[in-house]
Design brief:
The complex is a heterodimer of chains A (285) and B (448).
Chain A: E1 8-17, E2 20-30, E3 35-39, H1 46-53, E4 61-66, E5 69-70, H2 75-80, E6 82-85, H3 97-107, H4 112-125, H5 141-151, E7 159-163, H6 171-182, E8 189-193, H7 197-203, E9 206-211, E10 214-219, H8 221-229, H9 244-253, H10 267-275
Parallel strand pairs in A: 3-8, 3-9, 6-7, 7-8
Antiparallel strand pairs in A: 1-2, 1-4, 4-5, 9-10
Chain B: H1 3-19, H2 21-46, E1 57-63, H3 68-79, E2 83-87, H4 91-96, E3 102-106, H5 110-115, E4 122-126, H6 131-164, H7 170-203, H8 215-222, E5 225-229, H9 239-263, H10 265-272, H11 274-279, H12 285-315, H13 323-347, H14 351-368, H15 380-386, H16 390-402, H17 418-443
Parallel strand pairs in B: 1-2, 1-3, 4-5
Antiparallel strand pairs in B: 3-4
Helix pairs in contact in B: 2-14, 3-6, 6-7, 9-12, 9-13, 9-14, 9-16, 12-13, 13-16, 13-17, 16-17
Classes of the chains: A alpha/beta (285), B alpha/beta (448).
Chain lengths: 285, 448
């Protein structure tokens, strides 16, 4: 196990729940220090992938190595270096912010002195220093989300998994959360799942798009645009927005037909082009 | 008022009600289950009627006489409706240990006394902590006793009449002895009843004698039976047996309710997401279970301490006198009930499911286990079922220590409570393993 080992290395990962195939031979690599956005419609296999990486589930086939260790036999060493920010607000409402952090720090095995140091840093980073001794039940959604984030980082993980960490917060809190996550660059490797494409574009080095348990696209934003162009879609970025109408006119005069015109050519368009537009209603099993 | 809207609301509520399995369980199944348990038990107590037969209660008998008269008495008792005679020796120890509600010792010379035309003495020992059984047994055995005494002394009486008619000699003396003996007893009995009446009037409504004539008390005396309450700790009033039973029963039943509800916090944590956070801590898998178990044991210990302290101060439950036994039993009970709570929490999917199923099971276990009515009055299969409940073992242990004064190990005539404690600890171990297995199957991780 060396620093050059990928943070996450998944090969042919398969997982079935009854007749339902959650993962169908997934291949995915997260390099050290990389921020990877994981996208996919409901039921694509994102949550199962995160469960595999966090040793919460066992694959039917394939391998999943995290920080150079196999999830099948080395869960505890992996978990000691892994931080997971769950989608749920995994906090004790009847406890104060400080009590929550103290409990989790002690549970992670930090010494009292180390725990106090980390807790002070965490409260500062979350902007909750002044509300440290307030019970969480009195917090706004944004405050809870910030506390939820720092609670997962107390033990100084090398790999962080974030599962929709900004759900239900106002723009200011979202921005604060994203700044906190950006502040982790250079310290951790990170996988980020969300349905907010803008957050992925802002945070991630590469983007992986999953559908039906498989990886259907992966790369940087530019690479994804190029991949999407292979299907006839080409994104042209105009230097001046006011040239849009003239550009369309030039294309038409040149005899180049256009099936659709989208302004922006953003990740959402690429996502829909990759995964299709049909509804993916997920029924809870 | 818009009737159509009201009907729509009613339909909606009915639809939701029938989709809520817990509500269905509690409102439809639970009453039927409890009524079945009570009905079965009461049928046994009341004799069932309709040809169902009377539930036999055991009368333990030791015949030290071995005469035709004493053998006849035993046979007559055994043939009596609702009595099953079991012969045994060392009956006092059996009553003191709560293993017999009532025991009759026929002393040597019983037959000779009858032969001599005197009403012989009989030693009847009663366990005051089983008052219902004692009363029913007394009522059932009296006809046989009366008949046996009359038949046994019929000859001498007859000879008395013959003497009056002019027949001489020994027959006349014997008959006179019978009458004198009977009149002596009537006098003594009359005095006793007067005294009891005065005491009862002074104490209020503790006795059902009501200051008048108590047939079940008086009749045995008339038949020469020395009835006495046997308890291991002399000087304690029989009423304290009921108090001890009540506190034992409530301690166990309420402990089960509160600890199973407490175990539901595992499901709350799952719903809130905090359980996932805990599971992500290295080495936490078994620590989560153990931590929850210890939490349940701690709140259970608080509950038991408060309950027994209250019982001690207000109802004079002798907790301090048996503090070692109470502590050991409580530890075993806490372990077993905490493990039971973890089994529920590991198998149930939601808190509602846990509350519905646990309420049903705890109430049935309490009834079958003897928390609400005496097990010895119920049918045999019902009593056997009681042995499969935590309630019965826990109550037997507490009641054994608090009323019968049993120690952990056998001492003199007294049995120890170690078998009950051992069973409770074994149950705790088995349930803990079941809970662990269920927990890992449900929340296990790849390395588990």
């Amino acid at each position: 196990m060396t620093a050059t080992t990928p943070a996450v290395e998944i090969r042919g990962l398969t997982r079935r729940y009854g007749d339902q195939v959650a993962l169908a031979g997934l291949d995915l690599t997260l390099e050290r220090g990389e921020f990877l956005g994981l996208l996919g419609p409901n039921g694509a296999g994102k949550t199962t992938t995160l469960r595999m990486i966090s040793c919460m589930d066992r694959p039917d086939a394939g391998t999943c190595r995290v920080l150079g260790m196999d999830v099948g036999g080395q869960a505890d060493p992996i978990l000691a270096r892994l931080g997971v920010v769950p989608q749920e607000l995994a906090l004790y409402d009847a406890m104060t912010a400080r009590e929550n952090l103290e409990f989790l720090a002690r549970l992670q095995g930090l010494s009292v002195a180390k725990a106090q140091e980390r807790i002070a840093q965490a409260l500062e980073a979350a902007g909750l220093k002044d509300r440290a001794d307030t019970r969480v039940q009195g917090f706004s959604g944004g405050m809870k989300r910030r506390l939820n984030l720092v609670a997962s980082l107390l033990h100084g993980p090398e790999l962080v998994l974030l599962d929709e960490p900004t759900v239900g917060v106002d723009p200011q809190s979202r921005n604060h959360l994203l700044e906190m996550i950006e502040g982790l660059r250079g310290q951790v490797s990170l996988i980020y799942t969300t349905h907010q494409m803008g957050e992925i574009e802002r945070l991630c080095d590469r983007i992986a798009i999953m559908d039906r348990g498989r990886l259907v696209a992966i790369g940087t934003m530019d690479e994804l645009r190029a991949q999407a162009a292979g299907g006839g879609a080409t994104a042209l970025q105009l230097e001046r927005a006011e040239d849009r109408e003239r550009a369309l006119q030039v294309l038409a005069e040149a005899g180049i037909g256009l099936r659709a015109v989208h302004s922006g050519g953003d990740l959402e368009e690429i996502f829909l082009a990759t995964t299709g537009r049909s509804l993916r209603d997920e029924v809870e099993q | 008022m818009n009737l159509s809207s009201a009907i729509q609301l009613t339909r909606k509520d009915l639809k939701l009600f029938f989709r809520d399995r817990t509500a269905l369980l509690l409102s439809l199944v639970l009453p039927i289950a409890l009524a079945t348990v009570f009905g079965t038990a009461m049928k046994g107590m009341s004799g069932g009627g309709g040809g169902g037969g009377v539930k036999d209660l055991t009368l333990w008998v030791e015949d030290l006489d071995g005469s035709p008269q004493s053998t006849g008495l035993v046979e007559r008792l055994d043939a009596a409706a609702g009595i099953a005679v079991k012969r045994e020796t060392e009956l006092e120890a059996r009553v003191r240990n709560g293993k017999a509600a009532m025991a009759l010792v026929i002393p040597a010379g019983y037959g000779a006394e009858l032969e001599a035309g005197r009403i012989p003495r009989l030693d009847l020992m009663r366990d005051p902590s089983q008052p219902l059984t004692v009363q029913v047994l007394t009522a059932r055995m009296l006809p046989a006793m009366v008949m046996q005494t009359i038949e046994g002394s019929r000859g001498p009486l007859f000879r008395r009449f013959l003497g009056d008619l002019g027949f001489p000699a020994p027959g006349l003396e014997r008959a006179e002895a019978i009458f004198e003996s009977t009149f002596d007893r009537m006098d003594a009995l009359s005095e006793d009843l007067r005294t009891e009446g005065v005491e009862t009037a002074g104490e209020g409504a503790e006795s059902d004698a009501g200051g008048g004539f108590d047939f079940l008390t008086a009749a045995p005396k008339m038949l020469g039976i020395d009835a006495r309450d046997v308890s291991s700790e002399e000087g304690r009033p029989p009423s304290s047996a009921g108090v001890s039973h009540a506190f034992s029963a409530m301690a166990v039943m309420m402990l089960m309710f509160s600890l199973v509800a407490g175990a539901g916090s595992l499901l709350d944590e799952q719903q809130q997401g905090t359980l996932l956070r805990l599971r992500l801590v290295p080495g936490a898998a078994d620590a989560i279970l153990l931590g929850k178990g210890l939490f349940l044991a701690a709140i259970g210990a608080m509950q038991l301490s408060l309950l027994f302290l209250y019982g001690m101060l207000v109802f004079k439950v002798p907790v301090l006198e048996h503090i070692l036994e109470v502590l050991v039993i409580s530890l075993a009970v806490l372990a077993a009930v905490s493990a039971m709570g973890m089994v529920f929490a590991s198998y149930c999917r939601t808190r509602k499911q846990l509350e519905g199923s646990s309420t049903l099971l705890i109430l049935i276990m309490s009834a079958v286990g003897g928390a609400w009515f005496p097990r010895e009055m119920t049918p045999d299969w019902f009593q056997a079922a009681g042995k499969f409940t935590l309630t019965a073992w826990a109550m037997d242990a507490y009641h054994g220590a608090l009323w019968y004064g049993k120690k952990l190990w056998p001492s003199g005539q007294m049995q120890g409570i170690w078998p009950e404690v051992a069973v409770l600890l074994a149950v705790a171990l088995v349930l803990a393993l079941v809970a662990r297995r269920a927990y890992h199957r449900r929340f296990g991780r790849a390395a588990a």
